[in-house]
Amino acid sequence: MRPLRLYTWALAAALYVPIGVMVALSFNNSKLPYVWGGFTLRWYQELLRWDQAWQAVFNSVVVALAVSFTATLLGMFMAYVLRQDKYLTISQVAVVMPEVSEALSFAAALWLVKTYVGVDLFGPVGVFLAHLAYTLPMAHVLLAPYMAYVSRSAVEAARIFGASELKTMTAVVMPILMPAFVATFLIVFANSFDTYVKTAFTTSPEFVTAPVLLWSYAARGRGDPTIYALASLMLLPSLVAAVIYFRAVKRYS
Amino acid sequence: MIRRVALAAFASVVLLFYVPFLALGYYISGGGELKLPSLSMVATTFLLAAATAVVAIAVAYPAAYYLAKYGSEFEFALLTAPLWVGTLLKAYSLLALFAIVEKFTGIALWGTAAGVLVGMVYEYLPYALLTLYAAVEKLSETPVTAARVLGASRLQAFFRVELPLTMPGVAAAFILIFLFAMGEVVMPAVLGAWKVYTFGSYVWDLYFKARDFFSGSVLSLVLAALSLLATYVVVRTIRSISI
After folding, report:
1. Rounded to a whole number, what is the distance in Å from the CA of B34 to chain A's nearest CA?
2. How many angstroms separate the Cα of B181 from the Cα of each of A91, B50, B125, B134?
3. CB-closest option in B5, B89, B220 to A104
């Protein structure tokens, strides 16, 4: 058991090394990744002055907020009402679909809409819909296990005392599910915020999000301290989501 | 009223996620010349995906075993949290790490298959952990105790009793990771520097460079069909996949 524990901790450490190195490099006062030139905030200052980066982060935040709010709310309704296995299976299949297939099919659909309806959805709307397409089943799958905590008797009691279906949902069901709702919201937010493939297939050249900007450096293998700073900032939603998620899960056990 | 909202939400899953696949069918029915990927590229993709799955499972198994048997919640959280970090961010952080590794050890990873493998294992390790964790957690102590009473050592009990019992979980993890890795785009592009060319990159290029909807649609559908089949197998082996 002792060697197993050591192994597990070593693995955990290894998992955080790359991310840790990148964050460290964003504070490194040297352009070379293998030279430590002392601590500096100048890359963050440069990032502050870089309008395109701000615009990209802003775009990502807006899309991620809209996506996570819609997906989590609708996902909760689905998880609460559609309890049969068949509905969950439909969502599970969507969750494990390879992302190129999914992204290409979405792009193909947008092209058809553009050709036959004459509406060009490539850009913010296309990105929003493409993100919603995969986060909605994801929210459903994530929320479904927590429905067991909504006791039938509480719901029936509310109904007997004259609460409408909607009132029961908002006053009884939602409070019980709040921690799960918040956790799922954050996970969907983090996911939508830093996903690249689906965005690439559905955006327009004018609508640049943070991952699209990051990709333009990453795909050419260019290391740049200002981009390290940008990427480090992009880690924040994931870290917050992870921490809150595990705290929320704990509240149910 | 809430039933209607839920059904509308379900309809939007079908409309947004599944109906677009019909658009692929439309482009296929339009016909065209099928540009198949080269055999060597398919071989590279297969080998990379299989290697990713095997390495990820081998690395994750001892940790998953520990977590399921003795681990604390904190340790579980620590190991699975990287699941929520995006692929592109992981790829970019490895890019920086590779530069440092190359400087100090002389081992060049960027632009090689080994580098892509490291990236994909890094990305899919949490999936292996979660699937194997679920499999180990279901083990009961009884067969192990029986084996021990009958004189098996702890290692023997593990290899002859527990490991075979978790094989469905291992198979499920393999299929899941293999499929994700087959369609992987980001890691080969960023860490393989477009030199390690895979199926995912090929579909990517068909759309972004060749604008060949026909071939892209055919290959995407093949990948999606494979994934459906595999999911069916996974769901049958492990009833509840927790992601």
Report:
1. 16
2. 21, 8, 12, 21
3. B220
Phi then psi for residue B70, to 5 deg, are -125, -10
- Residues B209 and B204: their CA atoms lie apart, in Å, by 8
The ipTM is 0.89
What pLDDT shows up at residue A134?
93
CB atoms within 10 A of CB A188: 27
* Encoded tokens for A221: 């293998």
Residues sharing a CB contact under 8 Å with residue A236, sequence separation 6 or more, in sequence order? none
Confidence of residue B238 (pLDDT cuts 50, 70, 90): low
- Stretch 17-36 of chain B: residues touching chain A, C-beta under 8 Å: 17-24, 26-27
What domains can you pick out in chain B, each with its CATH number? Answer: 36-237 (1.10.3720.10)
pLDDT tens digit string along B127-139?
999 989 988 888 8
Shortest CA distance from B18: residue in chain A: A94
Q: How many CB atoms lie within 10 A of CB A48?
A: 12
| Closest by Cα among A68, A57, A79, A187 to A128 | A68
A34 within domain boundaries: no
- Closest C-alpha among A112, A97, A181, A171 to residue A146: A181
Measure A247 CA to nearest chain B CA, in Å: 10
- CATH classification of the domain holding A90: 1.10.3720.10
Is the separation of the CB atoms in A5 and B60 below 8 Å?
no
Q: Is residue A3 part of a domain?
A: no
DSSP three-state, residue A39: strand
Parent domain of A204: 42-252
A242 Cβ under 8 Å from any chain B Cβ? yes
Backbone angles phi, psi at A28, to 5 degrees: -90, 125
Q: What is the pLDDT of residue A24?
A: 92
Residue among A233, A242, A131, A52 nearest B89 (CA): A233
Helices (H), B70-153: 73-80, 87-105, 113-137, 142-149
Instruction: Give the number of other Cβ atoms within 10 Å of residue B206's Cβ.
Output: 22
